Structure formats: C-alpha cells, structure tokens
Amino acid sequence: MDVFGLFAGIGGLEYGLNTYPQNHVVGMCEILPEAQCVIASHHPGVPIHDDITTLHTLNGADVVTAGFPCQDISIAGPKVGLNGNRSSLVTHIFRLIRETPNAQRPDFVVIENVANLISLHSGEVLKYITDQFNELGYEWAYRLVDPRSLGIPQRRPRFVCVASRVVHPVNLLFPHDEDYEAIIEDKLHGDTQDPYGFYWTEGKIGIGWANNSIPPLKCGSSLGLPSAPAIWNPVADFFGTPSIHDAEHLQGFDDDWTAPLIEHGYKNSLRWKLLGNAVNTHVSSWIADRIMNPNGLAFNEANVIGRQHKKWSKAGFSRNGLSYAISSSAYPEGINYEPIMHYLREPLTPLSLKATLGFRRRVVESTLITYPNGFVESLNNYLHNQYQYAD
C-alpha cells in the first residue's frame, strides 16, 4: 500500500507501516525544517511538502497518516480547541480527501493525538473529526493506546483513530480478548522498591509519576526547555535522566534516528523536542499489524456499552452514522512492558546538583502534593552521596 504522511514529524506513524516491504511512503508533509531533515534522511527521494495549507495531492495514497499539532488541545497547552491556529490545521486532512476523486480516496486514515482530545471543550474536536468521516462515507473507531501494552516502559496514552472504507476499524482497534479493566497504578504510595519516573522540572503542583517507567517524553518544560524526565531508583537512592539514545529507544526508533540533525548543524536539544512530539513506533507498528492482517479480526460485541450521549467515552466507533461507546482500557494487548531499568541500555546521567536542589525546594514547598517520607529521604541521601551536600 502507498502511504502519505501529513504532519509527519520525524516519521513515527509512517515507521510502523513502513515495516511491511509491500508498503511505500509516497509523500510527506512537515513544516519544521529540523523534522524535514530527519525524515528526508530516512526516506530518500520521497517528496516532502512544507505547508499543508498549500498541499493539493495525496499522490494516490491508500493510507493517510496524520498526527496533527496538539499544542492547542493538549493538557499542557492553552486548550483553545479548533479555534487555535495550529490545531485548526486538522481541517486540511478532510479538505485533501475531498479534493481527491472518490475512486482514488485513501482506504484508511490514521489519526494520532493527545488523550485529552476526547474531552476537550466537551468533545468539540472529536465531534468535528467523526462528523467529517461520516460525511465522507468512512466508518471509524477510536481508543487510547499506551505503549506499556506494547513493550515500552513509557506512560504515554494517546488517542488513536482509524477510519476506513474497506474494513470496519472497530475490528482493527479492539482485540476480541482484550481485558478492558486493565489498569496500572502510577501514583506513588508509601514505601516502594520499584523505580519511578517523574518530571524533575515540576514538583509543586504536578509530578507525572510513572511506575517502573517514565512519564511521557515531551517537547519542553514549562520554561520551554527540552528536557528528559528523571528516574528515581529507591534501592540505590539515585536520581538520573536517560540519554538521548535511550530516549529514541523509548519512542521505538532505531539508534541515532534523530542524529541527522547534528550532521546538518542543528542543536542537540532539538532532538529532545522532536522525540517529545513524535508518535511512538510500537503504537504505529501495532496499528500497521492490524491493518495489514485484517482477516479473522473481530471485536467482542458484548463489550459495546450503547449509543454515545453528551460526553464522549474513552473509546467508540461508528455504525451507520451513529456513534457507540465500547469498553476499553489503554492496553489493547494487556499490560506488557519491560521494567525501566532493564530497558535502558546506557547509564542514567545523574541529576545535577542545581536541578536536584531546585526540585527538592519545590517538593518541600508544595501544598498540593503529598510526598511519601521515603521519597524525600532518598532525595536527601542522593544529594549527600552524589554531591556530598548536606543542609
């Protein structure tokens, strides 16, 4: 199948589909020059358009992928929904399909975005997306997918929507034997021997706990500085951050996938930014496997909750133009990930003295988060052991 990647970033969605030799990327659209640099190096000869608003062809693609900008709809963003200039770019996905002659329109459209898309502005963005698919004659299904169901220790639940004219996507996104009650308890309670990931740039009102994994890699802190989340190893009283190579690994990319940036004179910090914005390739590979092997796939009809009303459910699908809710977790293949310290291939970089002291200050001053005594004690032990620092 031919694949066209819109809002391609560094090619995370296309990565999964491209693992099948019969698939070919026939075009990509990406506005950031640094991201263009990366995908051009991995897709030589593939045309890359730099502005979706002036794009007028999908090059006859069978599959269109789109991880449209999430800054205006993510929890970390200003949450202005489709009124935001960046997220309103989603309208061009449907413009391009409409501009394509009916017989040449893609068989599949794959959309990925932040989990918050489902609830933002009472579901305004999701209603727009599903209404557009309905008008174009596509059946659709959506759900949340966390890569911790697919082997990667990163808490990163994402919205995934697949629309199709040839296979009902409800059969692709919802395995028949899924445990829809599966859940991971990420919040830290009391004593623990398990490593925890957290955001060291936060601490007063949020922390981003992730049990034996890291919280989502993101493009930048509240200060706009791309930075890796930290990992706390309570057994060793150690706090450190993963390397850029392990960050690529935690997004499922090949080693040095983003290295072309350095070869073309870009700053190393941009690698963190692009990885934070990327689609996890284990998620895209799972979607590709479902699309490429549809025979025999069927969801469990008993898991259908009923028609959707008022609020959108965490997972749903269309049937003859109507919207239905379905029971679902964020773990379509169950909870199945390698513990973070086993997954990392390079030593953690010790959290700097300045960063540790700043984080500890926020922890001590916080009135909104209750930190277990063991965490604060371990933080103090780390300062003493790593930097011989004591109050």
Biggest β-sheet description: 10 strands, mixed
Helix amount:
25-40%
- Quote the distance from N terminus to C terminus: 63 Å
Taking pLDDT < 50 over at least 5 consecutive residues as the criterion, the unreliable ranges are 72-81
Strand content: 15-25%
Structural class: alpha+beta
User: Which word captures the global form?
Assistant: globular
Count of discrete alpha- or pi-helical segments spanning 4 or more residues: 12
Number of DSSP strand runs: 15
- Overall pLDDT level: 92
Q: Strand order, biggest sheet?
A: 3-2-1-4-5-7-6-13-14-12
What is the gyration radius calculated from CA atoms? Answer: 21 Å
SSE pattern, N- to C-terminal: EHEHEEHEHEEHEEEEHHHHEEEHEHH
Describe the protein's architecture and organization.
The protein is of the alpha+beta class and 391 residues long. It has twelve helices and 15 strands. It has helices at 12-18, 33-42, 91-99, 124-136, 170-173, 244-250, 260-263, 269-277, 281-292, 340-343, 353-365, 373-387; strands at 2-6, 24-29, 48-49, 63-66, 108-114, 139-145, 158-164, 196-198, 210-211, 230-233, 238-241, 304-307, 316-319, 322-326, 349-350. The protein has a ten-stranded mixed beta sheet, sandwiched between helices.
